[in-house]
Design goal:
Blueprint: H1 3-33, H2 54-62, H3 65-96, H4 102-109, H5 117-131, H6 136-161, H7 165-173, H8 178-207, H9 210-216, H10 223-229, H11 237-265, H12 267-270
């Protein structure tokens, strides 16, 4: 087979995998969310007998979904900004400096990623109670910030390592201030990493369940806590499909917007050729 044939075959296989992995589950979620409450969708029906938006309206009217959405989208930007600010000094040290024990420090910074979410949640509950923080919103903000610091540190470390030292030296030799050196040498390279860290932490905060559930329930609810309530003992698939779409669709739009922003920045900046 020629090179073009192999490329075509790989493209077809990739398309099939994409359809099976993404399109089919998303399409099933849409169908389940539109199942009319009066007409159950069950075997041997291939498609629902009747479609309607009654599930959506009932979920909005009979649950605190609106409050949960407001809570989730109030938490996420605060967590994203706090995480980015706290991660920046550590990421600078990992990306620009050499010091004894650096590999150990880098490994230690990533440890929260391997710990189970409920273990971290239980630890934070005890810790926050001991230091006197009883506000659920503040507790979840602190918990999410610590939980997602490794993502921001890792992304920003790579961005800092891509900054060219000769540009920094040239700006310094020309008499540029610290702020001017940062704007000229650091910011163009860091901008994609900053955007990536913000978006990833934002999405992770919206989708996080364990810590939000342990620290916030029953007074402070988020979209994932409502979703998991329909996936637990009282499993109601159409209602769960409605909540899952409300949780996933905005994140997909955000990721597409992020991808567009990255393309607009240009790939040459990442390669250090700007």
């Amino acid at each position: 087979m020629s090179g073009k044939s192999w490329n075509r075959l790989l493209a077809i296989l990739l398309g099939l995998v994409l359809i099976i992995w993404l399109v089919v589950p998303f399409g099933m979620a849409v169908l389940w969310s539109l199942v009319d409450p009066d007409k159950a969708w069950s075997y041997p029906d291939l498609l629902p007998q009747k479609l309607s938006f009654r599930r959506w309206s009932e979920m909005w009217e009979t649950t605190n979904l609106a409050v949960a959405i407001a809570n989730s989208y109030m938490l996420a930007p605060i967590v994203a900004c706090a995480t980015l600010l706290l991660a920046a000094p550590t990421a600078y040290a990992f990306g620009r400096l050499e010091f004894p024990g650096k590999p150990v420090a880098q490994f230690t910074a990533l440890l929260p990623l391997v710990l189970p979410g409920f273990v971290i949640a239980l630890f934070f509950t005890a810790l926050l109670n001991r230091i006197g923080i009883y506000n659920k919103f503040l507790g979840i903000v602190v918990g999410h910030t610590v939980l997602f610091l490794p993502y921001a540190i890792r992304i920003l470390s790579v961005s800092y390592s891509l900054v060219r030292q000769d540009l920094i030296d040239a700006a310094r030799d020309l008499g540029a201030s610290r702020l001017a050196r940062f704007s000229a040498a650091y910011l163009p390279v860091l901008k994609p990493g900053i955007l990536a860290a913000l978006v990833i932490v934002f999405i992770q905060s919206i989708e996080e369940f364990a810590l939000s559930f342990v620290l916030g329930s029953p007074d402070f609810t988020t979209v994932p806590t409502i979703l998991y309530s329909y996936l637990g003992y009282n499993f109601i698939r159409p209602n769960a499909a409605v909540v899952s779409l409300i949780l996933v669709v905005p994140n997909i739009i955000l990721m597409l917007l992020f991808e567009r922003l990255l393309k607009s920045n240009g790939a040459v900046t990442l390669g250090g050729k700007g």
